[in-house]
């Protein structure tokens, strides 16, 4: 059987990390695309030269022409600009929307059967625009944010409880932004929900609230430390988990920015919700019960995503 072909649209910090991880995991051959000449070629060659040492078989090449992504099974999109200190994700909208238009046209022409994972910020609006620009099925265009936000939440909780990260599950819903909704009720240590752990004296409500806030600010904390860009190791690992779920038909239950057509009372928008990802792409959107406070937070998050989509329509009326 031929190897899978994975196209990385954008060969910056996340793109390079993705290519390396795909090699190490032998998920398939990689084509790195970028508008910057030499960057995808140079990174591709560097990563390919690590393959004899690491013992993986994968072609890793770089291109500046969309024809190079022809027939890709998966496209992971990181093209655009990241945040600098003091910037919000939303400040990137104008520049990255134009990038999504080009990327959408490239994927439509050369990889219309691909499963497309968008990572470019502001995530929920960019994945929505990318689906419209590319015209690919909604089940095959999805945004990565929830896996990363949940991973941050899980990591902080594992540190607080001094248990393995493997035993902590967590759900973060809503848009990828300051209004994201970490769901403590549905987050557990080996099946024990967080509110029970508070009752058991493992932590306090106040400490939990601080962890929730640190999760919301997780991206900004790293931008503040790096000063020249945003996080890339954990975002890449999260994108890989979604690609692997699709390529290996794992039917993983993962929080992703998925197209909603009425679920949670939301129509024609991408928002972070629990999904099942398998060979059919986003095979199911799972509708969990939200209590009053959670629903309020979710609605607020949806409102801010809707405002971003409106801003996109203001720039590109054909999206409306
Ligand atoms: P960076 O290292 O700057 O890489 C972006 C790459 O995109 C650069 O190599 C550019 O040359 C390239 N590029 C720019 N315009 C185009 C174009 N029109 N076509 C093709 N390539 C282009 O950034 P990064 O890899 O650190 O981050 C990429 C994106 O991911 C940014 O928008 C970040 O904000 C976003 N991001 C999202 C998350 C989420 O959780 C959703 C997390 C971290 C970063």
UniProtKB/TrEMBL annotation:
GO MF term list: L-lactate dehydrogenase (NAD+) activity; L-malate dehydrogenase (NAD+) activity
Binding site for NAD(+): 10-15, 34, 96, 119-121
Domain Lactate/malate dehydrogenase C-terminal: 148-304
Binding site for substrate: 83, 89, 121, 152
Enzyme Commission (EC) number: 1.1.1.37
EC class: oxidoreductase
Protein name, as recorded: Malate dehydrogenase
Biological source species: Allomesorhizobium camelthorni
This protein's encoding gene: mdh
């Amino acid at each position: 059987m031929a190897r899978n072909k994975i196209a990385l649209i954008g060969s910056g910090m996340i793109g390079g990390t993705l290519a390396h991880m795909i090699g190490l995991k032998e998920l398939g051959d990689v084509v790195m695309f970028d508008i910057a000449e030499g960057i995808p070629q140079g990174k591709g060659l560097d990563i390919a030269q690590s393959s004899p040492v690491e013992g993986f078989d994968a072609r890793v090449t770089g291109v500046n022409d969309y024809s190079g992504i022809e027939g890709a099974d998966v496209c992971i999109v990181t093209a655009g600009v990241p945040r600098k200190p003091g910037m919000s994700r939303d400040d990137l909208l104008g520049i990255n929307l134009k990038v999504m238009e080009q990327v959408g046209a490239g994927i439509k022409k050369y990889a219309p059967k691909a499963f497309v994972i968008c990572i470019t910020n502001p995530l929920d609006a960019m994945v929505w625009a990318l689906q419209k620009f590319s015209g690919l099925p909604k089940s095959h265009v999805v945004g990565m944010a929830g896996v990363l936000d949940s991973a941050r939440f899980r990591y902080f909780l594992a540190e607080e409880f001094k248990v393995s990260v493997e035993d902590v599950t967590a759900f973060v819903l809503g848009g990828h932004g300051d209004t994201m909704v970490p769901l403590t009720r549905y987050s557990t240590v080996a099946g024990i929900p967080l509110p029970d752990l508070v009752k058991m004296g493992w932590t306090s409500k106040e400490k939990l609230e601080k962890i929730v806030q640190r999760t919301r600010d997780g991206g900004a904390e790293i931008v503040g430390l790096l000063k020249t860009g945003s996080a890339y190791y954990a975002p890449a690992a999260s994108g890989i988990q979604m690609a692997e779920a699709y390529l290996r038909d794992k039917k993983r239950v993962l929080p992703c920015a998925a197209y909603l057509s009425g679920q949670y009372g939301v129509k024609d928008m991408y928002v972070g919700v629990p999904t099942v990802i398998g060979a059919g792409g986003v095979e199911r959107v799972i509708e969990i019960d939200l209590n009053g406070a959670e629903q309020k937070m979710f609605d607020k998050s949806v409102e801010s995503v809707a405002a971003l989509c409106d801003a996109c329509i203001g720039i590109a009326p054909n999206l409306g």
